[in-house]
Amino acid sequence: MMARHACWETIVAHELFSAMQDWDGTSAAALAAVYVEHSGRCDFQTNLISACQNPATERAATWLVKHHCETGKSSFSPEACTRLYMTLPAFEAWDAQLHVLQVMDFLPVPKEAAQVVFDVARDGANSAQKLICAWSLYGVAKLAAEHPEYRAAAKAILEEAAQLAPKGAIAVRLRKAQALLP
C-alpha cells in the first residue's frame, strides 16, 4: 500500500511539473487553471518549492506560489520558506525573483535566509529593471521590519533611493517601504 501511495505522489508531481513546463510563458489564465487543478493536493506546496529550484519551471512555480499566497493560503512551513528564499540568487528569470519579492508580505523570512534575501534585495534596489528595483526596496524594508539587525542598512538603502527622486512604481514601493521603517 505504501509503494502505491508513493507512486501516486510521483505521478501527481510529474503532472504538475509537466503543466508548468508546458506553460507558454504569458498566460496567467493557464497558470490559474494549473492552480485549480493541483492546489488541493497534499504535496502541492512541497512540489511548488521544488519547482522553484528548476530553471525550466521557476517562472511558473513562483507565479503559483504568489497566487497561492494571494488567495489567502500562505501556510508554507518555515523550512519551505527557507528553501524558497535561499533560491533567490539562483533564479535565471527576473520575474521569478520578482514573484518571490512580492510574497514577502505573506511569507516571513526565516533567520537562516535573511542574509541571502538582504543581499539579493540590496543588489536589486539598483536594478535597471524597474519592478525589481521597486520590489527590492520594499523587500529590504520588509526584511528589516522582521529582522531589526538589518534596519540601519535598510534605512540607508531607502535614503539613497529617495535622493534619486524615483517615479512610478519605484516611488510607490519606496513610500510603502519607508512606512515600514519610520
Topology record:
Layout: H1 2-22, H2 28-38, H3 44-52, H4 58-70, H5 78-86, H6 94-102, H7 111-124, H8 130-146, H9 151-163, H10 168-180
What percent strand? Answer: under 5%
Q: What is the number of strand segments?
A: 0
- Which structural class should the secondary elements be placed in? mainly alpha
Low-confidence regions: 1-9
The H/E string reads: HHHHHHHHHH
Major sheet: none
**Could you estimate the helical fraction of the residues in percent?**
over 70%
As a whole number of angstroms, the C-alpha radius of gyration is 17 Å
Helix count from the secondary structure assignment: 10
Give the mean pLDDT.
90
Separation of the first and last Cα atoms:
57 Å
Report the principal-axis shape.
Answer: globular
Write up what this structure looks like.
The chain has 182 residues and is mostly helical. The protein is built from 10 helices and no strands. It has helices at residues 2-22, 28-38, 44-52, 58-70, 78-86, 94-102, 111-124, 130-146, 151-163, 168-180. Helix 3 packs across helix 4 (58-70). The longest helix is centred in the N-terminal third of the chain and has 21 residues, at 2-22. The radius of gyration is 17 Å and the shape is globular. The model is unreliable at 1-9 (pLDDT under 50).
